[in-house]
Automatic annotation (TrEMBL):
Keywords: Cell membrane, Membrane, Symport, Transmembrane, Transmembrane helix, Transport. It comes from Sphingobium baderi. Its main location: membrane. PANTHER family: CATION_ACETATE SYMPORTER ACTP (PTHR48086:SF6), SODIUM/PROLINE SYMPORTER-RELATED (PTHR48086). This is Cation acetate symporter. The lineage of its organism: Bacteria, Pseudomonadati, Pseudomonadota, Alphaproteobacteria, Sphingomonadales. It is a multi-pass membrane protein. InterPro entries: Na/Glc_symporter_sf, Na/solute_symporter, Sodium:Solute_Symporter. It is found in: Cell membrane. It comes from the Bacteria.
Length: 496
């Protein structure tokens, strides 16, 4: 089979799942949360499928290729975030929420302003992550089919709109489940081929060290983060993981709190195994085999297609066109699954939080809310395409961390405070949410990665790409100051 056949088969399967789900969707509960009928093992696989995105399959290997073991924190710290999520958030989240994070934050402060703020935060976080996935998808398809990046991104956006508008959360869940199973199998196959080609696991590292030449790939410091940057990056990924809306809304798809906790344990176990394989096998193999192959270099000396495509080059070197085609289809399905979940997060926040907030609590009919949900999916696709074209040269993993920066500064503190602090007021919630959103976005825009690389300015406005070490504590402080010193009626006592 040619690569185009693998892609067409992937698209056919996912569209079949979408229309199967569409026949079973009966209202907003179906579109938002699959009516809470997903089992714990199924949701665990879906969580793994949602997490193991293009950033894991493509971006982390490319990052390891560029900076060696400095890529490790991008894999290790999110696992710490998942464990803390299990301890602090999952139980209360499932108990207090129904469809969106806005339901949880307003469980004792029913305020339209809070719904608007949490809806805006959810949209910004999910949109940044959506752009990361579209960048990976566009680069992949443009290389495989030789079509322009802009056109490739448009194809993904069109498919994404179909999945979400017709299939909702049920379709996204099953696409994520199937994709997770296939992805894990293909990563295992590729890892086995890497070890087999090297003649063993230890020789693989020897080959990688030879290919790396003067660079010590096991030495830290390649990213040149400094003490502030390293601590801030760790804080970003730990707390940002606990505030990622597209992962958190997955816990509304299971029947109860126990199933939510169990599904996260299953998902975290799968994620940990897959990420360890990527870091400890595929990363060194990329340096050993791709790094020394001159045919994979462009005239400027860089890798053809950029570092995001190193995994695909590795697949072709070890398994020929067949494995390249299979891995391309797997990476493609990975992106489709994740963008579907992100788009649902944005669409549900728009129809259930923003619209309800602006209507000041007046409910929509289920039909109207679903119609807005579908319209939001279409608008999200259009905006995502434009931003993906702007950031097409950026590393996928770094873009995902930018989304985590906003999550760490907004949804994470809002959820923790709403669940555990009885003194939180409506004014404190709104002020903290807006402060965290504005400062984290401004921090990203002013950073070297955005201000210099994306916008072309000679100097950044701030010296770090990771402002969370300032924005996260400051958001908690703003919530405390406003709740304590601004006259307002306190929220009802938390029942978490």
């Amino acid at each position: 089979m040619s690569q185009i056949h693998y892609f067409l088969a992937t698209v056919a399967i996912t569209i079949a799942i979408t229309f199967w789900a569409a026949r079973r969707n009966s209202g907003r509960a179906s579109f938002y949360a699959a009516e809470g009928k997903i089992s714990a093992p199924q949701n665990g696989l879906a969580i793994a499928g949602d997490f193991l995105s293009a950033g894991t399959v493509l971006g982390i290997v490319g990052l390891f290729f560029a900076v060696g073991m400095d890529a490790a924190p991008y894999l290790i710290t999110p696992l710490a975030g998942l464990f803390l999520m299990l301890t602090l958030i999952v139980g209360p989240l499932r108990r207090l929420g129904r469809f969106t994070l806005g339901d949880v934050v307003t469980h004792r402060m029913e305020s339209p302003h809070i719904r608007i703020v949490i809806g805006l935060c959810t949209i910004v976080i999910s949109l940044i992550n959506l752009v990361a996935q579209l960048v990976g998808a566009g680069a992949l398809i443009s290389i495989v089919f030789g079509i322009p990046f802009n056109f490739a991104v448009g194809i993904i956006a069109a498919l994404m709109t179909i999945y979400v508008a017709f299939g909702g959360m049920l379709a996204a869940t099953w696409v994520q489940i199937i994709k997770a199973v296939i992805l894990i199998a293909m990563v295992a196959v590729l890892a086995a081929l890497c070890i087999g080609r090297a003649g063993g696991y230890a020789p693989l590292f020897d080959l990688a060290e030879i290919s790396a030449r003067s660079r010590d790939m096991f030495a830290f410091g390649g990213l040149q983060l400094g003490m502030f940057g390293a601590i801030s990056l760790a804080l970003t990924q730990v707390t940002g993981m606990m505030g990622m809306p597209h992962l958190l809304i997955r816990f509304f798809t299971v029947p109860d709190e126990r199933a939510a906790r169990r599904s996260l344990v299953i998902g975290t176990t799968i994620i940990g195994i897959a990420m360890a394989t990527v870091l400890l096998v595929l990363g060194p193999a990329a340096i050993a085999f791709v790094g020394g192959d001159a045919s994979l270099r462009d005239p400027s000396g860089g890798i053809i297609g950029g570092t995001n495509m190193i995994t695909m080059h590795l697949a072709r070197l070890l398994g020929g066109d067949m494995l390249f085609g299979l891995m391309s289809a797997v990476a493609f399905s990975t992106i489709l699954a994740v963008v579907a979940g992100l788009t649902i997060s944005i669409s549900s926040a728009t129809s259930h939080d923003l619209v309800l907030g602006f209507r000041k609590g007046r409910s929509l009919t289920e039909g109207s809310e679903v119609a807005i949900f579908r319209l939001a999916a279409l608008v999200t696709s259009a905006i995502g395409v434009g931003l993906a074209i702007l950031f097409q040269k950026e590393n996928i993993t770094f873009l995902i961390v930018m989304g985590q920066t906003v999550a760490a500064s907004t949804t994470f503190p809002l959820l923790i405070l709403a669940i555990y602090w009885r003194g939180l007021t409506t004014a404190g919630t709104v002020a903290a949410g807006l402060f965290g959103l504005v400062t984290s976005v401004l921090g990203i825009v002013a950073s070297p990665a955005f201000w210099m690389k994306a916008l072309g300015h000679p100097e950044p406005l701030i010296p770090t790409d990771y402002p969370a070490l300032v924005t996260v504590p400051a958001t908690f402080l703003v919530a405390w100051l406003v709740s304590t010193f601004v006259p307002a009626r306190p929220a009802r006592a938390a029942q978490a």
